[in-house]
Each structure stands twice: as structure tokens, then as C-alpha cells.
Design brief:
With about 180 residues, the protein is of the alpha+beta class. Helix content is about 30%, strand content about 25%. β5 and β6 form a beta hairpin. It is globular and about 50 Å long.
Length: about 180
Amino acid sequence: MPDAALGRALLAQARAAIAGRLGVDIAAPPEHPRLSAPGATFVTLTQQGDLRGCIGSLEAYRSLREDVRENACAAAFHDRRFDPLTRAEFADTEVEVSLLGPAETMQVAGESDLLQQLRAGQDGLILSFEGRRATFLPQVWESLPVPGDFVRHLKRKAGLAENFWSDAMHFARYGVSKWKQF
């Protein structure tokens, strides 16, 4: 069960970081004891249900507070798929924070084995191959509920052909706790 107080603190930290960069005054974010511990987050921004930015960390290498704040600003201002967020858009932007659990390396004997091992709706997936790396959060299952589609789109995100397969590809799965500001 996700920690509601931690979720409120993470969402507030993310929103405060973006507001600070935009020069918008908002209330100081609440504290939580876990914010000082290492953590890996993804911050997803949406507007009217449409993606507006998503950036994150796959490994915990800095404090949870620093990670969520940096990823919030990166999603708002540095996601190459979108123009930087403007002050006028800020009020209509919803924030979702995903706290990643540890990644578990998957041993797969081909693509069909990978597809059988995947837990649809539950697994986030990391694909690594020859310096390329891409991930889909578990939330992506909502729009790609078929494992084959999920993997094909992830390969495309990594810059590979959808039908590409190499035994040199590496996969890891992870779970998340997530909170969304409505």
C-alpha cells in the first residue's frame, strides 16, 4: 500500500520545484522522513489527460527530495518531445510521481519467453542494447495492454525496429508506487 503522506510530499516537492523555476509562489512543500533517503522517481506531467512531459531516474543515486525535484524540472522544461512548460500552462498541469522499486534482471530465452514472463499492468520494463536504453513505466500498460505491443513500442522508443531481436538485449522489470495530483 503506497504511503499517502510520502505521496503528498513527493507531489508537493515536484510542483514546488516547477513553480520555483516559473516564478510562481506556492505553499512550502511538506516534509517526510523518507525524502532524505536515496530514491528513484519518474515525474509525468499531463494536461487534460495528454502527456506533457515525463522524465525520471532508473536507479537511486541521490536523495528522493533531490531526485523528484530534478526530474520534475526536467519533465517540465527539458523533455525534447515538448516545448518548455510556460507559467500560463502551470495551473492546468497535473503531476504524477512514480517511485521506482529495485529493478530485477530478467533471464529470457527469446522474445516469446519475455512476453510470457511479463506481468501486464504490473511490470515496468527496461530494455538495454548496445548503449541504448529505454523504459516504460507500468502505467503504459493502460494504453498498450497487449504484451507484444508493449515490447514492440518499447523497442521503437529505444531506436530499434519493432521486429528486432537480439540475444544481446537485456531486460529488467520493476514496480512502482505512484501518486497523482488531481
